[in-house]
Amino acid sequence: MSADSRAIAPEHPQSVHRHAASAQSSSWAGAKEIRMPFDDETLKAVAELRAGDKALLYGTMYTARDAAHKRIVNALSEGKPLPFEVAGQVIYYAGPCPAPPGKAIGSLGPTTSGRMDPYAPILMANGLKGMVGKGERSQEVKDAIVKHGAVYFVAVGGAGALLSRTVTEATVVAYPELGPEAVYRLQVSGFPVVVGIDSRGNDVYIRN
Amino acid sequence: MGYIDAESVRKTVRDLCIQACTVLPDDVLSALRRSRDAEGKSLAGDIMDMLLENAEIAAGEKVPICQDTGLVHVFLDLGRDVTMKGDLFQAVVEGVALGYTEGYLRKSVVDDPLFDRVNTKDNSPPVIHLELVPGSDLTITVMPKGTGSENMSRLAMLTPAAGPEGVKRFVLDTVKNAGANACPPMIVGVGVGGMMDKAAYLAKRALLRRIGERNPDDRVAALETELLREINELGIGPAGLGGSTTALWVAIETYPTHIGALPVAVNLQCHAARRATAVLRPESVSCEWDLPKRDALNGKGGGKDER
User: Fold this and answer.
1) Does the residue B227 lie in any domain?
2) Which of A86, A169, B99, B109 is the right S-S partner for A187, CB 3.0 to 4.6 Å?
3) Could you tell me the pTM of the whole model?
4) Contact check, Cβ <8 Å, A207/B49
5) B170 found inside a domain
6) pLDDT in tens, B209-253
7) Which residues in chain B touch residue A179, judged by CB atoms under 8 angstroms apart?
8) What contacts A75, CB < 8 A, 6 or more positions away?
């Protein structure tokens, strides 16, 4: 093996992992429960959420970070098919650690959302209703959230081990060659978040 | 006379990578616990509980504390009397690749930063810093560093007129600008002096200091205390969602500089302040998972411990 050898064990994420659901952090007990993707009923509940509210997410969401966003938005502009139907969906800005034996996925906390700001309004114009990440968003993203009745959730950065326990199933659905930047479809059960920007444009990071 | 062989370096670096990514150092854990108590019953307190629970899960299940297992920094403090058998740097690179592959850690390194950005698939290469120190030990410290905090780090070439006040203002502005992105409560490493490269290096090395250990120079130590208080008055709080815990510690390292210069670098570290250290002696390896004495940092003598 030499210093240049970069292929010791190329990652082959298993396409489907299953794992028993595990309890979310007790600090979030009693938080509002939100189902994903958002149907009409959920959208009504989402409209009621206010920045700073705690929520627990259930159902399906998709991971995408820098490289995947670039590809998805390129596909949109070229009229090519997308890795998943965006309408009503929630994107989680995250790239997981590889799944150790017996687990659905490795640690999986949020990455900095601001890097996805150039892409988010285009995705919301195409039906995206929710984003999960960490950190502040641009004015353009806030405006798009209000315009499209979407929501931005904040997950706690650096709590990847705990958050990964709420993932019951993880499937790579696009760009496996990107490794941790591939698009994963996740099934989550009680994924704890705080409402970052609500559908009226209130921002949890702006404190008076 | 004995020697240290490349194979023990490789194995040690592998183990250090896995240890650092999964087990939070004691001093960081204690600081998080103290801060949790300070936040009381609040969202900030709930977030601190979550971070402590997360650290417990990670250590218990040997899974990464944070999914961003970083670009690895390896600090090699090589005793002048050590005889190495084999290629030290290559052994370090291979150790990182082994640790990240066998430890189910995320591979976050791309080969060419400008154009192709193709993942190297084993998280190599690390950034390696080598210093020659007295003695016949090799101290290896592994610090996996994520981009959340690293991207919010800053460097300023201040002029001498700016003085300590200018340095303070720059540190506070950097922390304010970082906000939630750097995953507070953070540790703030500050390097002052040298020129731009030295200041940046000192800031990174400052992050190796244990929480509670102050700079031995009383005036610098006072500046550290002042900055920590003022940073925590910013109200950014855990995860940037408000609270009294924005930083766990401030560590400043200094070095002589040019008559016309006052370089200052601020290297932010998230609450997942991961590091692990081992000391290798000829024919013996002792993994303490602990830090080198501060005198190994700058040849300046031991720091005051006020944990």
Assistant:
1) yes
2) A169
3) 0.90
4) no
5) yes
6) 999 999 999 999 999 999 999 999 999 999 999 999 999 999 999
7) 107, 119, 121
8) A81, A82
